[in-house]
Write a structure and sequence with these properties.
Blueprint (H helix, E strand, L loop, with lengths): L1 H40 L4 H42 L2
Helix pairs in contact: 1-2
């Protein structure tokens, strides 16, 4: 039983990372690029920092949305199958 719970928790964490990391990396890269641009031009506008990151992450979510949904669907199906095996059906 303990191994089942550990496997389930590991699978949940890996699935969460698999879904979140691409979006967060795009936000990180765009944020770094905007920060470098602001440092070189000495423009310190706050909206210039957040708007490109939000737009890039939104576009990435639109592009990767079907893949993310597939990963979540596969995880959900694995959890249902594991539950059925766990209760003995």
């Amino acid at each position: 039983m303990e191994q089942f719970l550990l496997d389930t928790a590991r699978d949940a964490l890996l699935t969460t990372l698999k879904i979140a990391v691409p979006i967060l990396m795009i936000g990180l890269i765009v944020g770094l690029a905007v920060s470098i641009f602001q440092a070189t031009t000495q423009i310190q506008e706050q909206s210039l920092h957040f708007v490109p990151k939000i737009l890039a992450m939104l576009i990435a979510m639109l592009i990767l949305g079907s893949w993310m949904l597939t990963v979540m669907k596969e995880f959900t199906l694995r959890m249902y199958e594991s539950m059925l095996r766990f209760i003995g059906m």
